[in-house]
Structure formats: C-alpha cells, structure tokens
Specification:
This protein is α+β, with helices and mostly antiparallel strands. The chain has one domain: Winged helix-like DNA-binding domain superfamily/Winged helix DNA-binding domain (Arc Repressor Mutant, subunit A, Orthogonal Bundle), CATH 1.10.10.10. The protein contains 6 helices and 3 strands. A 3-stranded antiparallel sheet has the order 1-3-2. The chain is globular and about 55 Å long.
Amino acid sequence: MKRNKDYTCALGCPVEATLDLIDGKWKGVILYHLLNDGMLRFNELRRRLTGITQRTLTKQLRELEECGLITRTVYAEVPPRVEYRLSSRGHSLEPVVRSLQLWGENYLVERSQKQVA
C-alpha cells in the first residue's frame, strides 16, 4: 500500500481511498475478527483465517498498522507476546464492516436457495 497516495478528486475518489485501505482478501476479515473479539494475538488470528500463510498475515497486519487501522502491542516477555486491536480509526469502519457482513449473509442465503431450486 502506498502510504500517502494522491487521490484525484474524481467522483469515486473517497470510495477508492477506502477500498485502498481494506483491499484484498484478508484485511476486511482481519478487521471483522478484531471488531468481534476486541483483541487477538497473531496465532489466534491465523487460526481464524483458514488458508492464510504466516507471511501474508504478517504483511496484511503491517499494512493495517501502517495506515492506522490497528494497533500492535508487544510485551517484553519470553516468548514475546504481541496483541492486535482496532484503533479508533479502525473502529470507525464498524458500519462498513457490518454492512459487508449483512450483505454477505444475504448473498449466501440467496445463493444456497438457488442451488436447491
């Protein structure tokens, strides 16, 4: 992700800016889990995201932290403990994430009804 990407103020640029922050297969799902659980450690996130590699999860978390959507807290313990939480900016995406959840639930119900028919 480009940190200070310049968005031309075309009609869709606010949408483009938002999608730039949460693009890809995993970022929205990471935000969803942090929204529901409040705080998760790396391995807890990895268990919830079946199919994600350690490298990809690390990259996605770094990008979400870089743009200020999550916070990462490292505790000086052996072994080190790292916790991830939504930042206040991340919490402001709750209506967006909840809308995506509701839309997806409706879509999956409709799709399953079409497959039965």
